[in-house]
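lol ok so funny story. i was supposed to be doing the assay writeup but got distracted and ended up predicting the structure for this chain instead. priorities right. anyway since i did it might as well share w the group, maybe its usefull for someone
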Amino acid sequence: MVRFDSTVLFKEGQMLELKSVHRAFASIKYLCNAGAKVVIVTDWGEPNGSTRLPTQSVADYLSKFLQVKVLAADGIYGRVQSKQQKLETADILLLENLSVYKEEVANCPIFSEKLSSGIDIFVNDAFSDSHRILASTVGVVRFAHASVAGFHFEEELLRLTKALEIIKRPYIAVIGGGNLMDKSSALCHLASHCDGLVFVGTMAFQFMHALGLPVSSGLLEVGAAAEALKLINLAKERNIPILIPRDFWCMNSENPKLLNVFPAHDLLDGWKPIDLGPKSLTDISSLLSESKKVLWIGPVKLGTSQEKNGASRLVFTLGQACANGCLLTVVGRAACKAIKEVETSQSMQYCFKSAAVVWKILKGQSLPGVAALDQAYPYVLNWSSIYDDPSGPLIVDIGSGNGLFLLRMARTWSSLNFLGLEINKKLVHRCLESVQKFGLRNGHFISTNATTTFRSIVSSYPGFLLLVSVQIQISTKVTIGGECCKGHSSRQSLTCFLGKERILWCPLFRSGIISCLHMKVFLQSDIKSVATRMKQQFIRYGRGKLLVDVDGIGVEYDGEGWLKHNPFSVQSDWEQHVIDRGDPMYRVMLAKADGN
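and the output, tada:
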């Protein structure tokens, strides 16, 4: 399933035909060429404020760009059967407009599950929505085997990261728009990193009010004066300028065609500011002429639809700065539209239409759409320096905790390699000290969030994965694998401890641990009802690939359908404790279903 970014296709309800649009189709074309069946989900607005474009019209338009037949689905709920039938005659299916579903913005889990039903891999290619928590960008990852970024998504993220990280001095931020209260933390970040701030939108009035200048109450935000003073004091501490307008073009309230220029400290009653005045633009031009990096975010508007020529004058000034080697980053639809009207060096500018995404990053907050995706482990592992024989079978323990179970196994089985993945850095440090203390060359621990990094870590290992242990809470045990561990089977295995009454297996499927088809699943608990629910839900989320194994090696069931013994001959501290106290264990083995 591909979450497509419809903003590259539509503008004020009209379909666009631009060369830049083709970048957005790169992921879909790649998947189709690789033989995948693709389900596209996206949203689109209402052209001219009237009725929305029908799904079939959008599907036809996508077909023209992709040069592949795109079929329109009949809604989202209850689409599973129709989807399977339609994908038999086409490779791409477009679901109904997401904007008609309130469950989308509510990130409804039921809606997310319906949306992703029958999906193996989720590809998010809608970077412009990465700041929002939506069912189609965040909720669906719980139900997909893998969740990755599309080519367009990745390109936009890398471009934005590069644009914000490059530092050239002087660095000036030109800030338009309003809503100072919501953006105060981002403005503090800019004030801490820039060499000057220029306010060209309604935020300027909040600073004028904080400095004691008369401002109409209709232009003020409640409580914004205190935030403005905090920014002013921060700028004074760093000895950087905060530039606010010295004059404005104003419109007469009774005669809108009558315009005049007034100084900022002497705005008359009955005159409303509509644009920056000539002195203000001269001040801005003087400051930007020496800059080597400029971030322009937000429109040059003062709360009215009317304007003089402030935006065009600012664009002209920025064009001259780019010609002198200034790096320009433009954020927001209005700013991007304005900058395209002047010729500037494309190598010297970055344009990002989604201002909300950039504001969220400047606030120091993570993007939900990015955080939801599977993450790659950021470091290159030198397996030869970790293990004596990096080609040997590997056993991974996820959530290794204090590491005692893994360390005991490593000391017992010297022919196998053991890797513990634990998010608690202090525990990992202690485990590594124990590895050094015992002189183990077949044991290692890494501090990481294995739910998202497991795939990238294990894929770099030169040998094969023999067994994976996932420990969440010590109460219930699940093992996924082939033959007994001592037999060194080449099939993957999994042991996981889960202690919740309601068990959701989606995170395990999402992490890629059990997405392999050549595996068996061993479930074990000391609570009969929990073991029963595990079996039922595992089969459900296995999507027909798993059935109860009755023919496997070492499996022998009692009269109630529970295994008499643990066929793996590997016991954790918890399992041994249950046996020692004389309580029964309820076990079952699941295996790959024939024909899957």
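Confidence is low (pLDDT under 50) at residues 12-17, 471-518. The chain is about 35% helix and 20% strand.
back to the writeup now i swear
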